[in-house]
Write a structure and sequence with these properties.
By secondary structure, this protein is α+β, with helices and mostly antiparallel strands. Helix content is 31%, strand content 33%. This is Efflux transporter, RND family, MFP subunit.
Length: 462
Amino acid sequence: MTKRGTALAGLVLSSLLTAGLTACGSGGPSGVTKAPVAYGAVTQVVEAPATVTPKTQITVNATAGGSVAQLMVADGQHVTAGQTLLRIDSPDAQAQLNAAKAADAQAAAQGKRSSSGSSAIDFSESESLADANAQKSFDAAQTTAEQIADPAIKASILKQITSARNQYATASSDVRSTIANFNNGLASASDVVGSLSGAQRTQTQAAVAIAQKTVDSLTMKASIAGDISLRSGVGGASASGVDVSSLLSQLGGNLGSLAGAAGGSLGSAASGGGSTDPSDDTVITQGSPVDSGAALLVITDSSTLTLTAQVDETSILQITPGITADVQLDAVPDADYQASVISIDSQGQSSSRGGVTYRVRLSLGAGKLGDGSAAPVPRPGMSAVADLQVANKAHVLAVPSAAVVHVGNQDTVWLVASGTAHRHVVRLGAQGDTTVEVSSGLNPGDVIVTSGADKVHDGQKL
C-alpha cells in the first residue's frame, strides 16, 4: 500500500472512530469491537507499476556499412530538428549506385536497338511476359523493402517502388497502343521494341533512385529535437540487415550481378567488425567502423513526460480516460506527482506472472516533496507506482474493511441490536484498502462489529 493511500485510509478510519467506536462490548470476547455506522470518505485505488516515458524517442541506424566520416554531435548534446548529426563513408553504397546507373544505361542502350523479323504475335507475347515479370519484380522488391527497420528510409523506398509501378503501368499501356498501331501498319517494329524497352526501363530507373537515396541518407539529420545518446554502431543484424543489392536486383534485372561485381551488399557488415554485446559501453567516434542497420545514436525528446502503467486485467475495466492518479517514483520516494489517464490500449499482453496486463498512458504533472517544495523533474525510464483513483466518494456510509465478512457470494456484517449480534447482508460500493462503502443494507447509527468479526457467532451477546 502506498503512503498516500495509507494516510487517506487513516483519516477515514479516524473519522469513523471519532464518530463512536467503542471498546469491546460488555460480555464480548477479547479483540471484538463495535461502533455505530457513520458517514465518511472512501477512495478506491488500483495500484499499477509504471515507467516514465518521453514525448518521443528515436534510434538512428546506419543505412549502410562503412565508417563515420564526420561526427558533428556529442553525447548528451541537445539538437534541433533538421540538424546534421553525422556522415558515413560507404564505398559499398557508392558502388551500388554506380552499378544501378550502369544497368540503367545498358537498358537505355538496348532500347535503341531495333529487332528485325518480329511478328505481331511475338510482340504481344513479349509484352505479356514483360508485364508478368515486372509484377513479380515489384512485388519482390516491396517485400524486401518492408524489412527495412528505419521508418523514414522504408517509407521513402516504398514510395519510390509505388511510383515505379505507376510509371510502368503507364508505359505498358503505351506499349499495347504501339503494338496495336504496328498491327494496323501505323508503327514500325523498332517503335514497338523501343516502347517495350522503355517500359522495362522504369525498373532500372527505380533502382537508380533507391540507390541514390541510400547514398543521400549517409548524411544523417535529426528528425526531432532532443538530447543525444551515442551508441556503438556495431551489431546491425537485428536492426535492419536488408540486402539492398537483392532489392536492386529485383528491380533492375541484371543489376544484381553488376552490383555484386561492384562491391557486395549494403546489408552485410562493414569491415572492422565489433562487439554485438548490448552492454558494450563503446560509442561511435569519428573514423569508427559501423555495420549496416546498427544503432548509431538515440534522440530523446523529454519536453513532455508521460507515464506508461501496466494494469492487471482484473482491474482494467475500472479504468477510464480522465481518472486521476497519485504517483510515487522509486528515485524520489518522499515526493508525490499528479497524473491523469490519457488512453488505454485495447489489446492486452501477457505479463511475466502469467496473467494479462493492459498498457495505460497517463499525463504526468509536477511533483511536490513532503515539505511542499517542488520535486525534481523525472528522467525517462524511471520506475514508478501509480495509484489510480477509480472511485472517490466524499460522503458515504463507510465501514472498516475488517467489518465485512464474505459468505458465499454475499457480503455481510455483524449487526448488533439490543446487545445481540446477527449476520446481516449488505451491498458494497467503493472499496478502499481499509474502508469500504456500504451502498445498501445499513443506516447511519446502526451498530456493527468493526473488528474481530471472525470471533463472533450468530446470536452472541455483545
